[in-house]
Amino acid sequence: MRAVADKPTLIIGEEEYLAEQTLARLLDEALAPADRQLNLDVLDGAAPLGELLTRLDTAPFFGPRRVVVVRRLEAMRDADHEALIAYLERGDSPTTGIFVARELDRRRRLFLAFKRVGTVIECRPMPPRDRPAWVAALFVAAGKRPDRGVAEGLVATAGGSLRDLYHEVAKVAAYVGERPQVTTADVEAIASRLGEASIFTLVDAVGSGDAAGALRALHDNLATHEPLQVLFMIARQFRLIVRAHAAVAAGRSSGGLAERLGVPPFVARKIAEQARGYRADQFAGIFGVLEAADRAIKSGSAPRLVLETLIVRLAGRRAPAAQQRASLWA
Predict the structure, then answer these.
(1) Residue 54 CB neighbours (<10 A)
(2) Chain segment 242-296, per-residue pLDDT in tens
(3) Which residues contact 269 (CB under 8 A, 6 or more apart)?
(4) What's the pLDDT score for residue 25?
(5) Residue 219, exposed/middle/buried by CB under 10 A (0-12, 13-18, 19+)?
């Protein structure tokens, strides 16, 4: 039986950072750096089929193993799939093939062939709720101790891309230097405000009843985030707003709001500003429509249309509570 490392491997998924990390790990396992000049080929999925198959059938040069990486497998012509399937099923190639695809039709023969005779490694987007723990682990790996709220604040500030988050952690770690502790002040001082700014812009527009502005902000977010990630960020923002609203209503000092919310001070200040634009009796309707949007997306409705409808409803004309509930959340 062939070793797992020698099987054709498909790395598939939309999270490019995880895909690149997986590819780097597989290459490290397969080839020493000194062997890569002669025994590593990297091709695009749109390359001519004859060239691709020739490279896959070329024996190693002065080394134990040869690796061919085929990026963007989704760019391969449908007419060429059967020839690649035949190569995969033949099972006696002198070369280890690693194929990378953002997505393939999982019902078609090519994907099923990888599942049957090769190894499939999924690189799906990380659920938003898991990202703070992932960021915290990056800080620990860099020899740093993040304070409470640092990881969540960095996720809110730097956006949803794992690649962006990885680079932001590196920037913050370099900024603190030899100091082992990372504080929310460090995040506020150095992190790029990508995700925080876009979500705040969207929620600001919603709060002011600016449906057109909110839709523009929504489309900006959808250019870099999956629909469920955007919905999660909107819901998270409103959860922070309702907590800030309750704190103010209870007469608590605004000075400790950042600590209570577990976010950097600059984020807490913005949340407090947004909370002042809502009444307590509006939040039940807001969370009801957010929950309905979540169910609609997960049940198969068109995600973009669901989110656009959600934003138009959330940004509906400000009215007395009873009228607003009847017009927006019904």
Answers:
(1) 12
(2) 998 988 787 766 567 877 777 666 677 778 888 888 888 889 999 999 999 999 9
(3) none
(4) 94
(5) middle
Domain identity same for 81 and 162: no
Q: What's the CATH number where 246 sits?
A: 1.20.272.10
The predicted model scores a pTM of: 0.58
The span from the CA of 121 to the CA of 12, in Å, is 6
DSSP states along 40-51: EEEEETTS-HHH
Same domain, 109 and 215: no
- Classify residue 151 by its DSSP letter: H
* 90 and 48 within one domain: yes
**Residue 120, beta-bridge partner list:** 10
Query: What whole-number distance in Å separates Cα of residue 206 and Cα of residue 79?
Result: 48
| Residue numbers of the domain that contains 65 | 4-122
**How far does Cα 214 stand from its chain's mean position?**
22
Compute the distance between CA of residue 195 and CA of residue 131 in angstroms, rounded to an integer.
13
How far is it, in rounded angstroms, from Cα 138 to Cα 131? Answer: 11
- Shared-domain flag, residues 231 and 275: yes
Using DSSP bridges, classify how beta strands 145-146 and 67-71 pair: parallel, antiparallel or unpaired: unpaired
Task: Give the CATH number for residue 106.
Answer: 3.40.50.300
